[in-house]
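<context>
A single protein, sequence plus fold
<sample>
Here is the protein in question:
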Amino acid sequence: MQNKRDQLQAHGFVITRLISAILRADPDQPERPMRRTATGGLIGLGLSLLMLLIYGLLGFTRGGGDNSWQTANSIIVEKETGTRYVFLDGTLRPALNYASARLAAGGAEAQIRTVSAASLKGVPHGRAIGISGAPDQLPASGTLRRGAWLVCLNAGATATEPDTVIAVDAGWAAVDLPDDQAALVVDGASQRYLIYRGQRLAIKNNTVLLALGYGSASPSRVPGSWLNAFEAGPELSVPEVPGRGRKGPVVGARKTRIGQVLQASVPGAAAEYYLVLADGLLPITPTVARLVVTDPGTAKAYPGAVAEPIPVSAAAVVSAARSATLLPVAGLPDTPPKLATGLSGGRSWCARMTFDAGRGPTVTLSTVDSATVTGVTTGATDSRVADMVQVPPGSGVLVAGQAAPGVPSGTTYLITDLGIRYPLPSAEVVAALGYEGVATVPVPTTVLAMLPSGPSLDPEAARTEQIDTGGSSPG
């Protein structure tokens, strides 16, 4: 009995005889139909594949022949070594860095082309060109930052003086101090300051400390570069009172002396203070009142008595003449602010800065977790420059220097993620680097001076030939 295999063989035999009868008119032909055709096709296919393999290997090992990169706006990267070239005047010129290559190759029109060494063989090579110290990586326009800056103290730096660290929109969690708090600090020259509402107020002497209630407080030591983040405010000193100790005007039924401080109280309201001057009474703040009565020179106005505010009635003050004298006390705190604790408890002092072209910077005294205060070391020897800078990797900032609020300096800078500021001499250079139409961040020149400065990114300098001191020539 036949099985399926026998049936399949019989079917194949019948089909073979049928094809042979159609193609050769002989169903009993001993050779299989189309055997030569199939064999020839397989041989041809094999030879074709072999030739493709041979030519592919030759192209991979020998290369060459491609000259599409020979344009003025090409940045050529040699495939085997990574060496970067610019094709200028028919000559391959090695570029010191990417910024130089981009500027030399036409800026925004530049195109990076990877080329084999064989394709570069035979092309004249020249000396290296470029700007020494220019960045080798440029942040993309979409990565540029516009957020707040922090100028912080690295509390764990040294026992004598902490480092200054600038963080550019780094995302550190800063906690602002309340407006009624301040920090008492001292710089390397033993000059003491009160940091209050975005300003640094120089403290002239110990009398001021006693008057404000800070006589027993220990100031935190800070570097001068950190202090520069705060605008210089008025000096905290005792105002000069001309004619102190002489007879003053009669207030109510009370005789007074120039330099005395009067205190008028109204139920339900804060006490008001007045300084007695030759031409009348001058309203003063509680801070100025304390400065005046604490000054040893005020004893002339209180012969045989303790210098302190003298209570008078509100009616007597209202009927007294007002002085037209102006004292240099504008900008001082109305009342002595509370001192916040400084570099302890794992917190570090910071100046948090936001920028506005019209109003200028807004500076707030803040603290951050000390563990986050770190950055790229600048290695600067200039005391005005920060010790470390933190810019998020791969990003940067496009800034415009401001000499004063609303007054641009005319200089645009690119700050890279290494914390270096590079001057951009013109709007054309800004566009050449890919930042056309990007809004700049207005930053005071005093703050920019805290960042290390790099060379100006000038296209002419980018095409300048560098002298090879080693005596060898590229190529």
Observations:
- Residues 469-475 have pLDDT under 50 and may be disordered.
- The chain has four domains: 4-61, 63-130, 149-201+340-449, 246-319.
- DSSP finds eleven helices and 25 strands in the chain.
